[in-house]
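task queued by scheduler; priority normal; single chain, no ligands, no partner chains; default sampling; output format set to structure tokens
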Amino acid sequence: MAELNYAEKMNIGYENEYSTDAMTGGPDKRRQLYYQLIQSMKKAESVDIIVSFLMESGVRMLLKELEHTLKRGAKIRILTGNYLGITQPSALYLIKRKLGDRVDLRFYCEKGRSFHPKSYIFHYTDYSELYIGSSNISRSALTSGIEWNYRFSSQKDPENYKEFFTSQNLTYLKMSFNSVLYAGIVTLVTLLISYPTAYFLTLLKHRQLWLMLIVLPTWVNLLLKAYAFIGIFGQNGSINSFLSFLGVAPQQILFTDFSFIFVASYIELPFMILPIFNVLDDLDPNLINASYDLGANRWDTFRHVVFPLSMNGVRSGVQSVFIPSLSLFMLTRMIGGNRVITLGTAIEQHFLTTQNWGMGSTIGVVLILAMLLTMWATRERRER
């Protein structure tokens, strides 16, 4: 019975709730996963426990609170397996003996495939919580063992969205502005280069060969191209070596806005050239000849005939360049040296460094909305 009253034995009063989202175990009882789980069980309408193994010591700790949860009418489901043969049959028998069929207890068993999840899911009237981390159900994992578990709550997502728009110094809005600004500059630069290039290609005899040479760099991995430009723009790179040969001191080219825009534009060029070339190549030459017959010069023909008829290719090119440029993060680090901070960089930071997955997801949603807005703004418009 002593183990069934583990909360009292540890001198943790249920009424003195201490909530934390990070549970690391150790001597601080409030940082132990067990304490947070029993607080969640007290309010949950349904409980789902998915762990790779069960041990009798852990089951005995949770048994009393599981019993109280069932008496309130809540549903409990437990899914476990026999990962590395650790699950104790006595733990399974204890659950069935004390709780019977009121608990949906299932056992995962598939040969040749490991079962290694650790998750505790609680559903309440108006929100849900998810604990995910390293703890299976054992006394050590739930209390003093060194573990790492984190709680996610559906209630906190609105806070993340609020933080995006009200963060100190409007950090995320500045990132959004930077993302749109740099993506716009890259798109404009590629358009100014791509349109005359695509037009010139349509006049060549072996246009498909030249087009293939333009597309060829896209077959090279982006990371390799970034490293190539680091070698070109670096202090000891090709450009500075040439400047030194001319008697000019080495310049800081790498890790600047210029280097980022240059490399990003180079990488995106084929995606702007292709749709514009396809539209111009399919243009009916009789329309151009008719324009000349009506007295229009080359500039008027281009302005009133060629360019309007090629707008679908331009729109496709803008979509193909602007949308990916919004979320660039590898080039901002390797070429821009983190001087260029965009939403893509922020998402990478939140997921891989700070592990603030809620905020990272929020920024991702904002980025998706920006992409949808871009697609809507550049959609094909039909004349009425």
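post-processing summary
- The mean pLDDT is 83.
- The longest strand covers residues 75-81.
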